[in-house]
Amino acid sequence: MRGAKLLQYLILGAILVVVPLVVHSGYVMQILIMLAIYGILVLGLEIILGQTGLFSLAQAAFYGMGAYTSALLALRLGWPIWLATIGAMATSALFGAAIGFPVLRLRGDYLAIATLGFGEIFQLITNNWNSLTRGPMGLPGIPRPHVFGIMFDRTMYYYMIVAIFFIALITAFHLCRSFLGRTFRSIRDDEDAAEFMGINITKYKILSFVIGGIFAGLAGSLFAHYITFISPDTFTYTDSEMLLAMVFLGGAGTVIGPVIGAVILTLLPEVFQFLVQWDMFVIGVIMVLVMIYRPQGIWTSDIRWPWSRKDPALAAQGK
Amino acid sequence: MFILKIEAASKYFGGVRAVDAVTADIEEGKITSIIGPNGAGKTTLFNLITGTYELTSGDIIFHDRSLNRMHPHVIHSLGIARTFQNIRLFPTMSVLENVMIGFHSKLKPGIVDLFIPNRYRRVEQSMKERAEAALNLLDILPRAGLKAVSLPYGEQRRVEIARALVSDPEIVLLDEPSAGMNVGEGKSLMQFITRIRDEMHKTVIVIEHNMRVVRWISDRIIVLDHGHKIADGDPEQVLHDPRVIEAYLGKSGLTNYAQVN
Question: How far away is chain B from the Cα of A24, in angstroms, using its nearest Cα?
């Protein structure tokens, strides 16, 4: 079983390594890079929403915060890019904690509204603090990373970002499988019971937002240094909503699910481009159909493949 | 030796006096039952001890420490664990994971433990071993890998008790542990509760409606009615107290009961 799983990953890895050597389309490479960035971003939201059950509409704001922090550190202070990336992750984590303290007494819908407000505040600041962010004109000329004086081209950036994505994925897997993930899930399942069992729920909720913020900050920084131009309209409420849809479509509570959701919802608009302005309509219908027929999302933790022999529930009983 | 002192504890919800100036001392290493009709304030008293509510007035002292205004998770780490009247297991988690959560506050693993493989393995291993030991104690170890909510009701109750015991608390609060169990299950559970006292030397406070059970396991009974304590003492004495019978059966019931006896 372990061998088969390893083989799956090796095949996937091999495909990802070979793609840029075979496909010479800038368009395809662009999509793959954006997939990896969105993958990292939804992994962060998966920790907050899927594992801890905190309904956050601020993930795009954390993403934007990472992008702006990294861009400004590199542009204005001339920090090397790897250091700016770490700065971006730290800033998003810090604001994750900062939003946590006042907001985490709220539950469910109220938390959603409060995080929505946080996202709007971020929008207003980036749009209006002209001296720092240049407002709606955006920040052009963000440096691309370079090694030994060679500027990263798209292919090199692709390899870097795919590697970072897999590190993020393995980290997320490890977190969710560990005692930390278990604690997060206990809060999601029954907050009060968790507290009676000795879990300091405030601490772990803030921790959840901090970890989600780190992932978002990383994704934001990678985005800024790839696109080299950022403006406030990339990090709006609609983007938070899209991330939420990715998590729910793929399967909240699993690590792979949200990534699959990200892949589907990034690819669908490209596939349906020929429908012009009707593409979102078709995607909406698909979302509704999935939610009706598979409300838990596409991927679930006890998914059964045609080729897997045992029902996991029965296997657990030793039958 | 008194381990828990409830001193004139009161909890008012607006005009409703759910618990009104209840004073009681809980003896260490004994089983104390709290009984009373529905709405007498039994579960509210449990909630006051475990920190769900703040006391309106009075105090609850555990080992010379006031529990008032403490967070539930702090009270748990001091050594008071509980179960719930309506079972509250974590529905998406396995039986083993449910019980492992109960041990989390004892081990207090940090973020650093996640990234040092040796320490990570040690933390997970000791959580797992403790949880398995607790499940074994309640004879549900074979169910460890199953989803907790897929078990029959009686077994879910056992998982809850295992989850309360895994952190090795000094006091165990059991809120109607035999509710929804059949006669056989109830009986073996009662035997187990006496084992918690005799073999693990823990203090047990139990809310229970089944009078036969209460009479059999209790070292002491406290009776609540409309938020007041109306009787407190050893089982035979309390269960024959006219005021207790009146609270349960009403005034006419009292005369009937007197005629029968």
Answer: 39
